[in-house]
Amino acid sequence: MSTSSTPSTPSEWRLLVLSLPASSATPRMRIWRALKTLGCGALRDGAYLLPRTAAGPFDALAEETIAEGGVAWLLDIQAPTAEEDALLRGLFARNKDYAEFIDGLRETRKTLPALSPQEITRLLRKSGRDYDALRGIDYFPNESSLDAEVYWADFRAGAALAISPDEPHAAPGQVRKRNFDAYQGKLWATRRHLWIDRVASAWLIRRFIDRTARFLWLPQPADCPDDALGFDFDGAAFTHIGEMVTFEVLLASFGLDQDAGLSRVAAMVHALDVGGDPVPEAAGFEAIMAGMRQRVSGDDELLMEMSSALDALHTHFNEQNQKKN
User: Fold this and answer.
1) Please, are residues 272 and 258 in contact by the beta-carbon 8 Å criterion?
2) Which of 2, 15, 3 is nearest to 79 (CA)?
3) Strand duo 47-51 + 41-44: pairing
4) pLDDT at residue 3 in the model
5) What is the spatial distance between Cα 156 and Cα 2, in angstroms, rounded to a whole number?
6) Fewest beta carbons less than 10 Å away: which of 33, 93, 290, 314?
7) Distance (Å, rounded) from C-alpha 142 to C-alpha 95?
């Protein structure tokens, strides 16, 4: 959608007009910051505009103004013509904000190779908060918002590559069925600095495939010993096949894909690892994973902590499935 086009029907707006006593410096600053966070359009000093559908917070700000000894008016308005309505929409153009965000991503991406995984994770979280805040006040998305979405996806991909430079390429072929008995008490190996697919796959192995599994975290895939079962790197015994990530390949290999809870976990892992259909729980799991990586001392501790989260998700998904049926 482009803001350059004139809407055929003028929008509905809500106008907040307020005035505070000169002595109310602290409340004035607090209310101004709230208005800034909302991304209001300023008609003049003390007169702020929002699309009516997004103007719910105006009620609380008006009440706060009156409680602080000021005066406040709330007015529902509509521009008399589509052309004037387009001018009001122009107050909410985020083109400059998106351009600054994109420029920041470009500069930050240059620094990624020199940063540690923890530093990259912190950068991702901060940039993600900035992006979400900007989208939250983008009431009339246009080409600039689409450009930012593309750059943000590219930045995340670059960060993931910097964290895990040996991400596997999808291999051709079909999944081969495996016998549980032949995979007990094994040494399993994958790349160190675990992320979504690898931590979920290690959890799956220990919980459902090989309960006495031992794990080796590799500095490089080439360091995998001959007696270890590799997973989630090129040439590993279990890795990406076609559109399936390693977790999904393990599920299918051992016939675990009939478990409804595991299938839901697989959808979440797939979405976070390679994209695809959104999963509501994915963002929360990614945030927990990112935070946990900053807290723990190594991959053994990380797997232990994240296993609790995955156990809980598996139980939750199964309960949801039972309620549906």
Assistant:
1) no
2) 15
3) antiparallel
4) 40
5) 26
6) 33
7) 8
**Residues for the chain: how many in total?**
325
The tens-digit pLDDT sequence of the chain (325 residues) is 334 444 555 689 999 999 999 888 899 999 999 999 999 999 998 999 999 999 999 999 999 999 999 999 999 999 989 899 999 999 999 999 999 999 999 999 999 888 877 788 888 889 989 999 999 999 999 999 999 998 888 888 788 778 776 778 888 889 999 999 999 999 999 999 899 999 999 999 999 999 999 999 999 999 999 999 999 999 999 999 999 999 999 999 999 999 999 999 999 999 888 877 878 898 889 889 988 988 898 999 999 999 999 999 999 999 988 888 7
Q: Are 226 and 236 in contact (CB under 8 A)?
A: no
Beta bridge partners of 91: none
One-letter amino acid at 292 equals: M
* Residue corresponding to tokens 């006040």: 137
CA 38 and chain centroid, separation: 21
Neighbouring CB atoms inside 10 A of 201's CB total 26
Helix (H, G, I), strand (E, B) or coil at 72: strand
DSSP 231: B
**Could you tell me if residue 30 is left (phi over 0), alpha (psi between -120 and 50 degrees) or otherwise beta?**
alpha
**Torsion from C-alpha of 203, 206, 208, 211, nearest 10 degrees:** -160
Q: Which long-range contacts (CB under 8 A, 24 or more apart) does 38-41 make?
A: 38/137, 39/92, 39/94, 39/136, 39/137, 39/138, 39/139, 40/16, 41/88, 41/91, 41/92
Contacts 24+ apart (CB under 8 A), 172-176: 172/241, 172/242, 173/241, 173/242, 174/241, 175/241, 175/244, 175/249, 175/252, 175/253, 176/253
Residue 286 has what pLDDT? 87
Binning the chain into helix, strand and coil, the percentages to the nearest 5 are 55, 15, 30
Check: CB of residue 307 under 8 Å from CB of residue 206. yes
Count, in order, helices (H) and strands (E) of the chain. Answer: 11, 7
